[in-house]
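User: I'm preparing a small set of examples for a lab meeting where we compare how different chains pack in three dimensions. I only have the primary sequence for this one, and I'd like the structure in token form so I can line it up with the others. Please keep the answer compact; I'll paste it straight into my notes.
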Amino acid sequence: MPNALGLDRSEYKGAQSTLCPGCGHDSISNQIISAAYDMNLPMWKVAKFSGIGCSSKTPAYFLKGSHGFNSVHGRMPSVATGATLANHELIAIAVSGDGDTGSIGMGQFKHVIRRNVPMVYIIENNGVYGLTKGQFSATSDEGQFLKYYGTNQLPAIDLCLEAIIGGATFVARSFSGDAKQAQTLIKAALAHKGVAIIDIISPCVTFNNDPKGNKSYEYGKKHEIALHEIDFAPSGYVQGREEIMIDDYAEGETIEVSMHDGSYIRLKKLERGHDPRNRMEAIRQLEEAQREQLFVTGLIYYEEPRPTIGETLNLAPTPLSQMQGDQLRPSASALEDLMKQYM
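Assistant: Understood. Below is the structure token output for the 343-residue chain.
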């Protein structure tokens, strides 16, 4: 059935995947396709960004009618920053991996958050370097054993914790095997103003699928602890929300988190009763999960949007990419007046 743009879901697909059969990354690509279709995203306004790794191949597999840039290892945030500054009307979707983000790209990851670049930043996290035959990554479990690399002696980096500490205003974690939750979080991230971080545990079926490891598919299905049930309503559906929400109110306490465009996320608290609007509570949940080896998923932290990098720099309303040369270059008299200030 066509969406409001007259596009079928199949038109939001990309090339045929060349990843290993059963790879969690393909499931994430499918959820991006579904989210874009449901939200009526015009693909010509979408720009996809990635670095290097199995995860960074995936933008080729979704939204074939969009722009795309595959950058060098760990440097995707810089490219995305430049593109969104040149054209702030772009809908930026970035896909990275635990190595691309947590190792060589950690500095860029922290600064794209600090600058609040408006983008959806998806980390396809499998705890291993799958593209180079399965070495440990920065998010590999401490004590994890791999056949060809022995035992990992280093503690894992929690990228959600790093994101909150770094100043991100939307931080979530999901599991590629939980399609509904992942898709809902992607929709909410697309509606968020500013950088939105989603760390999605995505099992590597070839090099890191030991049932005992907390990034395997079997472990995820058995041990996932959802912090809440999540629903998302775009701005066009807000007026009908009472009818949608009545059953959930009857079953348990529900909170709403409003997006800047009028959309909202509805969170029905489960047994852990997590409120993502409390920064210290979000940090506590992550530290407890890391200490007790729990696998918690959901919207972990959210705060009211702060100024994006374009707003901080006072960019003109018209995107730089749409301006003419005479609008971008100062006149001779303007340059002369500027130079006089330094004389």
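A couple of notes for your slides: The domain at 9-310 is CATH 3.40.50.970 (Rossmann fold). The CA atoms of residues 43 and 66 lie 5 Å apart.

User: Perfect, thanks.
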